[in-house]
Design brief:
The complex is a heterodimer of chains A (about 260) and B (about 300).
Chain A: E1 3-12, E2 21-31, E3 36-40, H1 47-54, E4 62-67, E5 70-71, H2 77-86, E6 87-90, H3 94-97, H4 104-114, H5 120-134, H6 141-144, H7 153-165, E7 171-175, H8 183-200, E8 203-208, H9 211-217, E9 220-225, E10 228-234, H10 235-240, H11 245-253
Parallel strand pairs in A: 3-8, 3-9, 6-7, 7-8
Antiparallel strand pairs in A: 1-2, 1-4, 4-5, 9-10
Helix pairs in contact in A: 4-5, 4-7, 5-7, 7-8
Chain B: E1 15-25, E2 31-42, E3 47-51, H1 58-65, E4 76-83, E5 86-87, H2 93-102, E6 104-107, H3 111-114, H4 121-127, H5 131-136, H6 143-156, H7 162-166, H8 175-188, E7 193-197, H9 205-222, E8 225-230, H10 233-239, E9 242-247, E10 250-256, H11 257-262, H12 267-280, H13 291-299
Parallel strand pairs in B: 3-8, 3-9, 6-7, 7-8
Antiparallel strand pairs in B: 1-2, 1-4, 4-5, 9-10
Classes of the chains: A alpha/beta (about 260), B alpha/beta (about 300).
Chain lengths: ~260, ~300
């Protein structure tokens, strides 16, 4: 399977201001299952817009998003549903992605039911147990009936990952999924993500401004600025020999411990 | 503590917390001991870091130094907060106003909640300049002297286009510029202590670097003390001489920043550093502090390492 953005652009026009915002300009990107692709850039670089385009939450102004050569924009309803199942999202703010009035089992069970991934409540509950255990929330029974406010930030982020993998996705688009977490919790969630890559063969498009994390976990890196992809390549190449001055600037800016 | 070798130790400390406890309400019937028997000292001219994870009590400690705890009657503070030797626990609101006016200038993480969205930046900086500063500069308290002072503080806080910034509203500025405006407001009071709580956490790495450099230079220039509160050990590493590490409301370790970050003595600091380094070091596995260890750290009354 191959997820591609081909020469994709997204322009936002507001009615009042005359200047349109070119959030993403001619971006080309490839992601595969089992591969950890990172998009790095600072705020306003267009990385989140690119994520939304990949997730089929926005329509590109130009260019296309394709899955195995099939353009998402031209898919019919059934195909599009399948697309949304195989390309899942995990976003930064777990509080905003979870309904505060739904227990964990409901939050995850709902998507399983909507996508027909299980028959009946018992099977759904079984699937919820499975995915919670996959993200290291064990015993699952201890977490299933909790509300989001009864979970820590790291646990909430794990629930979101569990909800994403409940649909057997091939690729997860994670937009600043660990940025708000403390180092130790961040390390825990990243370890879970790496583990899922190994065990389920899921791939990631990992969007972040956190370069040290990228250096640690990514296979392939895209660097974005002002809506454009400045350079991309295997992680080791980008970090060892960044060709673009902006990438060098980014690398130098991350504070380091003595 | 290592302050015995400190020549400043003999004089009255600028800030001295002794056995500070803060209890905050978390719900109708629940409360949390956010700060537990914290001892902390900041001397004149010192740069002190306070690090910990979210929920460690570092921000509550910082807020209690500025008298900015929530005003609910259910907030209970016990122990001692001495500012220049004056006991502030139980002090009237007026005394705290005076502390914030003269002694402690604060910089918060989110400048948009701190800045008034309907007021031009220049006026907001002007408001925090005490008259005594203008009089002393020989220009009287008139408007042009104040304007000149506003521009000077904005420039000092790393905003060379001071005139333009002063005429802007907060929403017209970038995040990094807003944070520099907060620095300008904080230093305009000529405080003895600049208390910065996660001042760069919301900023991009390159902007963070610039803002930290600005803060560093301004504090050095004015000779004020700095207390930097952060979850980011790397940020504190470059900015402070001495550091306190907090966990679950308690201070678990104190010492020179370089020593604490390279040879941590407390098990928690060791575990925390291990997890931070595991995110950056190439040949280590990702390390998250195990739950069992966290529970032990939280339960055990620790003595400062």
């Amino acid at each position: 399977m191959l997820l591609e953005a081909i020469d994709v652009s997204k322009t936002f026009r507001s009615r009042r201001s005359s200047a349109p915002v070119h959030a993403v300009q001619n971006a080309t990107l490839q992601a595969r299952p089992g591969e950890f692709v990172a998009i790095v850039g600072e705020s306003g670089s267009g990385k989140s817009t690119l994520a939304r385009l990949l997730l089929d939450l926005l329509d590109p102004t130009e260019g296309s998003i394709q899955l195995d050569g099939r353009e998402v924009g031209s898919m019919d309803r059934t195909e599009r549903r399948a697309y949304r199942r195989s390309v899942q999202a995990v976003l930064q703010d777990p509080a905003g992605s979870l309904n505060p009035r739904k227990r964990v089992v409901q939050a995850i069970g709902e998507v399983i039911r909507l996508h027909g991934m299980a028959r009946g409540p018992a099977e759904t509950r079984q699937r919820v147990t499975e995915v919670l255990e996959l993200v290291g929330m064990e015993p699952a029974e201890a977490f299933m009936d909790r509300f989001p406010h009864e979970l820590s930030g790291g646990q909430r982020q794990r629930v979101l990952i569990a909800r994403a993998i409940a649909l057997d996705p091939r690729i997860i688009v994670a937009d600043e999924a660990v940025s708000a977490l403390d180092a130790s919790v961040k390390a825990g969630v990243l370890a879970v993500m790496a583990d899922l890559k190994d065990r389920l063969g899921v791939g990631y498009v990992f969007i972040t401004h956190d370069l040290p994390v990228v250096q640690k976990v990514a296979d392939h890196v895209y660097v974005m600025r002002h809506g454009r992809i400045l350079e991309h390549g295997p992680k080791d190449e980008i970090f060892a020999d960044p060709s673009h001055p902006y990438t060098r600037e980014l690398l130098a800016a991350s504070p380091a411990l003595p | 503590m290592t302050t015995t070798e400190n020549p400043l130790a003999a004089s009255t400390p600028l800030i001295e917390l002794t056995g500070l406890n803060v209890v905050l309400p978390t719900g109708e019937r629940s409360e949390v001991e956010a700060v537990k028997s914290v001892d902390l000292v900041v001397h004149d001219g010192e740069r002190v870091g306070l690090v910990g994870e979210s929920g460690s009590g570092k921000s509550v400690t910082g807020r209690s130094i500025a008298g900015l705890l929530p005003t609910s009657p259910r907030v209970r503070v016990s122990g001692s907060i001495r500012i220049r030797g004056q006991e502030m626990v139980g002090a009237p609101a007026r005394a705290w106003d005076e502390v914030r006016r003269q002694t402690v200038g604060m910089i918060f993480q989110d400048p948009l909640t701190f800045l008034n969205p309907t007021m031009r930046v220049g006026r907001q900086v002007a408001e925090s300049i005490p008259d005594r500063r203008l009089v002393r500069s020989g220009a009287g308290g008139d408007r042009t002297a104040r304007d000149r002072a506003v521009f000077r503080f904005l420039r000092q806080a790393g905003l060379p286009d001071a005139e333009q910034v002063a005429a802007s509203f907060p929403h017209e500025l970038s995040g990094g510029m807003r944070q520099r405006v907060l620095i300008a407001i904080a230093i305009a009071k000529e405080p003895s202590l600049v208390l910065a709580d996660e001042p760069t956490t919301a900023l991009d790495a390159t902007v963070q670097q610039h803002v930290l450099r600005t803060l560093d230079e301004t504090v050095a220039e004015l000779g004020t003390s700095l207390m930097l509160i952060s979850h980011d050990l790397a940020v504190v590493a470059g900015m402070t001489d001495r550091v306190y590490v907090m966990y679950a409301g308690r201070i678990v370790e104190e010492g020179p920043t370089a020593r604490v970050l390279t040879e941590p003595r407390h098990e928690y600091t060791q575990a925390l550093l291990r997890s931070v380094r595991s995110l950056t070091d190439r040949d280590t596995d990702l390390y998250s502090i195990p739950l069992a260890l966290r529970q032990r750290f939280a339960e055990e009354p620790t003595h400062v390492a």
